[in-house]
């Protein structure tokens, strides 16, 4: 048997394996079509006889990988040449630091809308480099909603305004971007390309890959060239966005496999009908679970306020932590994994990203109704 035939047989076996519904907040579920293509390309990409993990990042095959990933990102984001696209090593925490290093000008203040743990962490990273201001802080309400315009109090002339569009831990989401005259920065780690968003109106948007775009190891950054002109001087090249732009995201050895997977995910989204279709599907999937919560007569208690509910991360619990544990155990026995909520919230969290199948939401909602009926 040839090596190629052996690889194809392995792919067929893996493709037919029964899969668990993975509700993990990240690393998270990926499209099955993308995984199957990756299985093949791990062995031999583009007929080169070499797998995608083995190619040099300077090779023509990887040139194509990066070009297609950038093209797919640009099409989904609807951005022009006034924005650059970067694929960088590391996750959102690295962007928290790089953002401040590059643009938090001495004598100026960066404003942060603190709507959850990651927004708070982003501000704490910036505190190491300069002055910050919490234009909103939802600590007192346990981050159960995103702020209305009247709850926001910006500093005088902030150098930028940073917000997290979807809060993974607390299950809240902005209906539209905050309004400000300052350069607007968005952490979209858990929802990039899950619904329409005005990327062109932002000075910078970014997302770590492992929640809604691909595997862990890298981030996608969309950044305006106007913002790049404001880069602080004196930084090492490796921390300067404009140097990464100049080298086409390959200033250093990049996370090639993560970029490759993001490119496949971008193509998959386009083939499914684009961001508008993703939003329609995600709205319906989340609605199945929210209907089970709202129709439980108070048995299931949601964390997020109704006007701030996320389509990506759905938090709920009962009044009894022991009952929550039993639900998680029974769900796992029925092929539903990673439903335990974050320790700061407790209860359950169902993360239903773009690639999460509708049938998993149906199955969870049915179990929630039956569990409420027998334990209420």
Q: What would you say about this model in short?
A:
With 376 residues, the protein is an alpha/beta fold. It is built from 11 helices and 14 strands.
Structure, explained:
This protein is α/β, with parallel strands linked by helices and 376 residues long. It folds into 2 domains: 60-271, 3-Layer(aba) Sandwich (Aspartate Aminotransferase, domain 2), CATH 3.40.640.10; 274-375, Aspartate Aminotransferase, domain 1 (Alpha-Beta Complex). It is built from 11 helices and 14 strands. The chain has helices spanning 3-15, 32-43, 60-77, 92-103, 117-126, 225-228, 241-246, 256-271, 274-294, 321-333, 358-375, and strands at residues 21-22, 83-89, 109-114, 131-137, 160-164, 166-167, 172-173, 184-187, 204-208, 218-224, 301-302, 313-317, 336-337, 348-351. It has a 7-stranded mixed beta sheet with strand order 2-10-9-8-5-3-4, with helices on both faces. It has a 3-stranded antiparallel beta sheet with strand order 11-12-14. Helix 1 packs antiparallel against helix 2 (32-43). The longest helix is centred in the C-terminal third of the chain and has 21 residues, at 274-294. The chain is globular. The protein starts with a helix and ends with a helix. 46% of the residues are buried.
């Amino acid at each position: 048997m040839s090596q190629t035939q052996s690889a194809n047989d392995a792919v067929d076996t893996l493709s037919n394996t029964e899969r668990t519904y993975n509700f993990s907040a990240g690393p998270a579920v990926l499209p099955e079509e993308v995984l199957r293509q990756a299985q093949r390309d791990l062995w031999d990409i583009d007929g080169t006889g070499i797998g995608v993990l083995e190619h040099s990042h300077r090779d023509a095959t990887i040139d194509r990988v990066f070009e297609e990933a950038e093209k797919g990102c640009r099409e989904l984001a609807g951005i022009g040449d006034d924005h650059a696209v970067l694929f960088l090593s590391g996750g959102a925490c690295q962007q928290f630091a790089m953002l401040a290093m590059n643009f938090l000008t001495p004598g100026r203040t960066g404003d942060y809308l603190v709507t959850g743990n990651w927004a708070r962490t982003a501000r704490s990273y910036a505190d190491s480099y300069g002055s910050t201001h919490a234009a909103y802080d939802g600590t007192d309400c346990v981050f159960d909603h995103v702020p209305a315009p009247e709850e926001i109090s910006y500093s005088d002339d902030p150098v930028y305004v940073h917000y997290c569009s979807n809060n993974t831990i607390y299950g809240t989401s902005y209906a539209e971007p905050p309004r400000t005259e300052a350069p607007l920065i968005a952490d979209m780690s858990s929802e990039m390309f899950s619904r329409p968003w005005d990327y062109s109106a932002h000075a910078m948007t970014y997302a770590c890959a492992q929640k809604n775009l691909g595997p862990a190891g890298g981030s996608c950054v969309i950044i305006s060239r106007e913002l790049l002109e404001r880069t602080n001087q004196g930084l090492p090249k490796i921390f300067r966005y404009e140097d990464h732009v100049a080298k086409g995201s390959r200033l250093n050895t990049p996370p090639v496999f993560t970029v490759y997977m993001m490119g496949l995910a971008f193509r998959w989204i386009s083939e499914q009908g684009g961001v508008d279709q993703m939003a329609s599907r995600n709205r319906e999937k989340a609605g199945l679970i929210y209907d089970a919560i709202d129709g439980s007569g108070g048995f299931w208690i949601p964390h997020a306020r109704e006007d701030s509910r996320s389509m990506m991360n759905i938090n709920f619990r009962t009044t009894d932590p022991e009952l929550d544990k039993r639900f998680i155990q029974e769900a796992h026995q029925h092929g539903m994994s990673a439903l335990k909520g974050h320790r700061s919230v407790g209860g359950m969290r169902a993360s239903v990203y773009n690639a999460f199948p509708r049938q998993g939401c149906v199955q969870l909602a049915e179990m929630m109704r039956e569990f409420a009926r027998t334990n209420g």
